[in-house]
Amino acid sequence: MPHSKTTALSWHFPLFFTLILPIAAAFILFWLDPFQPVHFPDDAMSRSIVTTAPALNEQMRRGSEALAEGLVEGPEDLVYDAAEGVIYTGCKDGWIKRVTVKEPVANSTVESFVRTGGRPLGVALDRNGELIVADADKGLIKVTREKKLELLTDESEGLKFRITDGVDIADDGTIYFTDASYKYNLSEFMFDILEGNPYGRLLSYNPSTAHTALLASRLYFPNGVVVSPDQQSLIFCETVLMRCRKYYIKGPKRGTTEKFVDDMPGFPDNIRYDGDGHYWIGLGSAPTYVWELGRRYPIVRKAMAMMVKYVGRLNMEKNGGVVAVDLEGNLIAHYYDSAFSFITGGIKIGNHLYCGSVHYPFIIRLDLSKSPAIPTTKHV
Ligand SMILES: *[C@@H]1O[C@H](CO)[C@@H](O)[C@H](O)[C@H]1NC(C)=O
Ligand SMILES: *[C@@H]1O[C@H](CO)[C@@H](O)[C@H](O)[C@H]1NC(C)=O
């Protein structure tokens, strides 16, 4: 009898410490943690997400080149200064870089322009050719030609911006921008997405009066924003709900928001107009199976949040890329690659599409004429 008792103990001890204790601890942490995800709104749930554009290119990486490799860390948003022939981009290390594209691409040059001390995301050029920056950590900044930084605004109605994200400028000089979240900062953005509450805002800044106006609130991680070519409306991306919305700045519908694209095949980031009838929108990732579960069940998002908190990250991104959308919001083309994640946007210069990202140390350049999106039959 004593013999069998020893055996039982020697079996149960390891089992207890390697399996039962960690599982029990995980359960206790899970239930005690105050993080409380909520259901998404019904209007964002009643549709299928994954759709296919009329034209696809599923191997975006093939045929694309790395521009400014090793000289730009996480070039999040890009703006082209045609007069100077340079691309401005904001990097992870806080530097805004100026890239002069030369052929071959390896001969391009990169200049460190100015350092914001924060994380520059959206970039836009005003009428005087001065750079306006949506800096996630600092707020809305102007960089003068003398490379001086001026903080334009960092709060609205008593709430500080936590993730100043996208920016664009109308022909009349008004600056439109987004604060993706007033609750979480950029290093915590995943919790904003997983919590499912609308902490984002769409705002404007008038440079002649220095007035910041709140245009729309209760938005789900509003990210990129662009002024429509007719100057009547804004299109902005609500990353979490995988959709883009239209906000009228002029005309009889002024001040109202309506649907623009509801069926994005991924999480939209920046949006840019190409001057030729299309908006290009970066997709950080296609939705994954785990996200589809999380979208429906807040408790799954809580489990995902605990993974982020205690394990470090979720490996959830796949098939990053860009989509082209026409002025009515119809999907026209979808470029992506299983090897890409956190692609943030695309600007078109001539035949080339230049894409930024959150973490790659280069700008992706794709020759659209050599790598077309191929017409496809719609299979949802
Ligand atoms: C590119 O750079 C290399 C090395 O500096 C140089 O030899 C070559 O002439 C350049 N090519 C062009 C087209 O300028
Ligand atoms: C973001 O928020 C966390 C937690 O509040 C804080 O520790 C961190 O310093 C913040 N980061 C920035 C850049 O403000």
Please characterize this protein's 3D structure:
With 380 residues, the protein is an alpha+beta fold. It folds into two domains: 1-32; 42-375, Neuraminidase. The chain is 16% helix and 39% strand. It is built from four helices and 28 strands. The strands form seven sheets. The chain has a six-stranded mixed sheet, with no helix packed on it. A four-stranded antiparallel sheet has the order 2-27-26-25, with no helix packed on it. A hairpin with a 2-residue loop joins strand 11 and strand 12. Helix 3 crosses helix 4. The protein is globular and about 75 Å long. Mean pLDDT is 92; it is low at 1-5. The structure holds 2-acetamido-2-deoxy-beta-D-glucopyranose (2 copies). One 2-acetamido-2-deoxy-beta-D-glucopyranose binds next to loops.
